[in-house]
Amino acid sequence: MCSAPWIITWKNKPARIRTIEAHARQAEKTGAYVIRFSKFVLVSSLCLILACNDGGVTDRELDFSSEPVARGWEDVGIVPRRASSPPGLGQSRVSFAFTSEIDGASAFRHDLQGIVELFQLTGAGEPGTTGTQAAVASLERVSIGRNEKVHIHADGSSHIHKDPAVSVYAALMDFPTGGSWGARFILNNGTEDIKPFLLTFLVQDKKLISSSGSIIPESRQEIVSDSIPIATLSSANPPNPEMHSITIADALSRSQPLVISFITPAFCQSKLCGPVLEEAVNPNFLRYRESVTFIHIEPYDIASLQSGSGFQLVDIMTEWNLKTEPWVFVIGTDGKVIVGLEGITNEAELARYIDRALAN
Description:
By secondary structure, the chain is of the alpha+beta class. Helices cover 19% and strands 32% of the residues.
């Protein structure tokens, strides 16, 4: 289950939330999901699946069939989306996005806090209509980017709002089995409780490279040399040659933690790569460069893109079995994955996992 730092707090916390958190602390080993952003261009491009129920920790079976799930979205005015690829067996970091209709348009919610209950689904139908609670995890809001907009008051005065461009809600969770799973979100918007609602998702029947504890390949990607200029290895502006100066195989022999980012700022298909590199990876590079090795890898062959030949994954993406971007991996000194962060991450979340790698 989640450790204490993951537990969200707020003023005048209801008794049922305190009860839920007590259950969370007792479990001690849970995991998380993550949403897929490789095809994410607009809010509408995210896949949705969710529903509602009455609040509180429950050991009774819930109905995760499509009709009550969809009805739950309407009841609360919130649509949940898985914000990462389907997780695999073991522990993974998973994220969700929540949107509501604001001024006639779908907009990310940046004001939520709370927990997610996990259910392994059984019963008739696909993906399964009932489930018994398997774990509980506290959700952390992870925001990136800034949107500036003018807010006009009723008296005609105005001021600038600087809101996050995108927010997801992430946690670490353990999945002992694959198949159909359900999530029950118990959230608060800072002033009032929100009626719980549901989401269904799939877990793969195998352990993935992004699962905590996975051993990474001793990859030998191209690095900067007299014959290989930095412009062929990085589309960042400006590029950082230090992140392209050592292969993963050689870095593993240093007995230092690694941060390996698969990011293409100039050719990103999700429009998240630039912000993730600039707001998450680069600040932590400046902070930890003496004790952690940072490696940046372009997911696509730059020469092919520049020649108009289209998006061609570089060999290391195939070697790691990665099909989306961006990804940021934190690797321990033993060569095993501490966490794989897909899609949105920010400076604080990445730093926390780096600290964990340094403490081991």
